[in-house]
């Protein structure tokens, strides 16, 4: 579900598969160690195939906890864009919506 990868500029956390209530606790536990990471983090979402409000809340809490260090959501899958749009939260994240080229 979560694969970390260090680049020259930031730490990339790639999420894939279904992010629903059944995975929310696991997502929270996987993201928690990165809250105190000192450099900027990008969460890559191109391979997310399902998303519900429980995991959106986990992503919101993570982004809020990292307000000083920085965190952005990138390469949104169509599913992610659709769910954030339906929840009225696209603007809350303040990240440009760029669909993955594989969409």
From TrEMBL:
It holds the Pfam family STAS_2. Residues 11-73 form the STAS domain. SUPFAM superfamilies: SpoIIaa-like. It comes from the Bacteria. InterPro entries: MlaB-like_STAS, MlaB_ABC_Transporter, STAS_dom, STAS_dom_sf. This is STAS domain-containing protein. It comes from Vibrio ordalii FS-238.
